[in-house]
Amino acid sequence: MESKDKTISGFSKLSKTGKIKWIVKTFFKEPDTVMSELMSYWHSNEEQQKILDNFSENTISNFPMPFGVAPNFVIDGHPYCVPMVIEESSVVAAASSAAKFWMTRGGFKTEVLATKKLGQVHFKWSGDTYKLNYHFESIKKKLLEEAFPLTESMVKRGGGIMDIELIDLTDQEPHLYQLLASFETCDSMGANFINTCLEQFGQSLTHFFKESDQFAKEEEEVEIVMSILSNYTPECLVRAWVECPVSELGEFPNGMTGESFAEKFKLAVRIAEIDPYRATTHNKGIYNGVDSVVIATGNDFRAIEACGHTYAAKDGTYSSLSHCEIKDGQFKFWLDLPLAIGTVGGLTSLHPIAKRSLELLDDPDANKLMRIIAATGLAQNFSALRSLITTGIQKGHMKMHLQNILNQLKANQSEQLAAIEHFSEEIVSFSAVKSFLEKIRLG
Ligand code: MEV
What proportion of the chain, given as a percentage, has pLDDT over 90? Predict the structure, then answer.
């Protein structure tokens, strides 16, 4: 097929069925089969499907992901069953197992350290920097006054614009400045609120220079480059930790004592603190837990990951987000996580399952959800490190992997039991499982 036959104009105007028809006939060898497969994932309830369709453009079907739960989380003394959306095997099992481990050792403790969100208006201005600084207080007053109608309802909820600073970037790029604004957005993630305020600041700034007698020169006209929130929110931060006497850690596989475990665990965390290669994988494990709750509760996992990785590099080298210490016989493991999330507005109230996730968590406010997410990330990290420094990670992974292969090869219940027994001592691979099944199927 010519490549021009694989392009189309007016695709977005086609009906959903029209879109699927064009796609299956253009890109698939078995169009009818693919068409009915895609349509089989449509929601049986038309209204529900419409809600999903409206989240994004050119929707042709739904992409199912497992919705799991990790019970037995005790966070700040309260029990939670944490909803997790993730496709990777072992993640939910690992979170559940860490939750159970810490349930009898004081549970997870958390503290929200700050909830400041940020946005920027980037602009160019060719006038005198000293003059701009000198007049900035009047500029700021005008910006706040003109944005007031937009902020009224947020202010009533206890939030709003906290401050606006002028940042001079002219030493790095001629004539470049920035308004750096900070916001409190209460229980909403606040992206729309922040971006609306920022665009208003941009307009007010332009008017200020046009209208003010003090700035009449040509070079004193401002050029707004862009106005957008920053996903880097180092001061929207939550800490989660677990701690107990080393003597209460118990015993670990292969007869490892609590003491050796604690020392080896601390060293594993230290490696992630000093080596960016290990830190990336270590933090990825944390985000296995974080993202799955973030997705389950209808929040933006790209924003949260982007922020976390920048935070992990804040001291100049990419490093671990979690830390460990052993002091006076006490083992302590903690995680500092920047987390800009919401529990009202956006997908949190539109997505039918996200709403259920929040209900499962007793409809938390944003503050509480920050704590739950951080605890889940820490639990995930604890489980991953516990496996890595004791049995190795593959043992648990392979168990789930074996199950997936058995399902794929349509093994019946007795074949499954035989395979599980056989592979408790053997290395799992698709071909090994396939030939094992072939052998027992031959009798
Ligand atoms: C796998 O998804 C995550 C781990 O690699 C994390 C880690 O190594 O700490 C197990």
Answer: 89
pLDDT in tens, 58-73: 999 999 999 999 999 9
| Contact residues of ligand 1, CB 6 A cut-off | 88, 281-282, 284-285, 288, 384, 388, 393
Vertex 435 angle, CA 433 and 441, to 5°: 100
pLDDT at 4 over 80: no
Catalytic residue among 88, 219, 359, 426: 88
CATH classification of 117-230, choosing from 3.40.630.40, 2.60.40.10, 3.40.50.300, 3.30.70.420? 3.30.70.420
Burial (CB count within 10 angstroms: exposed 0-12, middle 13-18, buried 19+), residue 36? exposed
pTM of the model: 0.92
Q: Which atom of ligand 1 is nearest to the CA of 285?
A: 6
For the structural domain made of 67-114+235-391, what CATH number should be given? 3.90.770.10
* Residue to substitute in 91, 280, 282 for testing ligand 1 pocket (most ligand atoms within 8 angstroms of CB): 282
- Using alpha carbons, list the distances in angstroms from residue 26 to 62, 184, 219, 393: 20, 49, 55, 43
Band (pLDDT 50/70/90 cuts) for residue 366 is very high
93 CA → ligand 1 middle, Å = 13
Q: Are strands 160-168 and 78-85 parallel, antiparallel or unpaired?
A: unpaired
Whether 397 is a known active-site residue: answer yes
**CA 285–ligand 1 middle distance (angstroms):** 4
Q: What's the confidence (pLDDT) of residue 1?
A: 53
